[in-house]
Amino acid sequence: MSNRREFIGTSLTAIAGLTLLPAINSFANPGSQYKSGGIAKPKLRFAIASDIHYAQQGTPFEENTANLIKWLNDDHTKNHLDMVILNGDLVHNRPDLLPEIKTKYLDKLNVPYHTIPGNHDFADAAIWKKVFSYEDNYTVEHGDIAFVLANTADVKGGYVCPNNSFIKASLDKFADKKVVFVILHIPPIKWIKGDGFLDCPETLELLHNYPNVKAAFHGHDHALDGVRYTGNRFPHFFDSHIGGDWGTAYKGYRIVEIDDDYKIYTYQVNASQNPILNSNRL
C-alpha cells in the first residue's frame, strides 16, 4: 500500500535515544531464525501486537489468533521476550468472547502478557477487570522502565480521548524512571483529515512534556506498520495487524529492545511472510 512507503527502510533513524530499525523477515520456514535486531542481551525485550479481531465473520480469526501465539512463543524461544502487549481489538464486536480468547489462546503464551481495549472490544473497566483481573487504565513497571496503558474507546465502539488525569498522575509517579512508554489503541491526533483517529491535544501535551516518555504505541489502523511524529519529533509507532479483513498484506508485530544504557531499538516483524518485505527504502 502506498502509505507504507514512509515507514520501511534500511537506514537507521536515531532520535532521543531511540533507533528505528527496518522490518525483519522471520519465521518463513519451520526453524528459521533471526538475530535480535539491536543488541545481544537487552535489559528489556518485549513484543507489541494489535487488532486480532477474534470472531470477525469472513476471516480465519481462529487461525490468525493461533498463529500469533505460535509466532510469539517461537520468538521467545529463539530470542527471549520479557513480555507481550496486546494493544486493542482483541475481539470483533463480541465482548462476550473475551474470556474465550483469553483462556483458549492468550493464556498459552509462554511469557507474561498485558492487554488494553480497542474500539471493537466494546469494553470498559468493569468488563476488562472481570476478564483480565485489571482495569482498562493501569501501569506496568520493569525496574527503571514503565508503561502507561489507557483505554481510547467506549462500550459502544466510540472513540474517546484517554483519561488524561490518569495519564498525568502516572507520568508524575514515573518521573524518575529512565524510560516510559504510553500504550493507546487509537492515536491522539488526526494527522490526515478523516483518517479515523482522535484529536486529543491535552494527551499530546502530556506526551511531549515528560522527557522520559520516549514513545507511544498504537494499533487501530491495520495499514500502518512504522512511525509518525508529533511535536518535536515525538514518535508514535504502529505494528500492522494480526486479524481483520483489511490492512497490510502481511500479519506482524513490533519488537522493542532496551539496552543497558537505556537506548531503545525497535523494528517490525513480518511474521506471516506474506509478502516478503525487501529492505530497500521506497
UniProtKB/TrEMBL annotation:
| A Pfam short name | Metallophos
Residue ranges constituting the Calcineurin-like phosphoesterase domain according to the UniProt record: 44-223
Coiled-coil stretches: none
**GO molecular function, a single term:** hydrolase activity
- What this protein is called in its record is Metallophosphoesterase
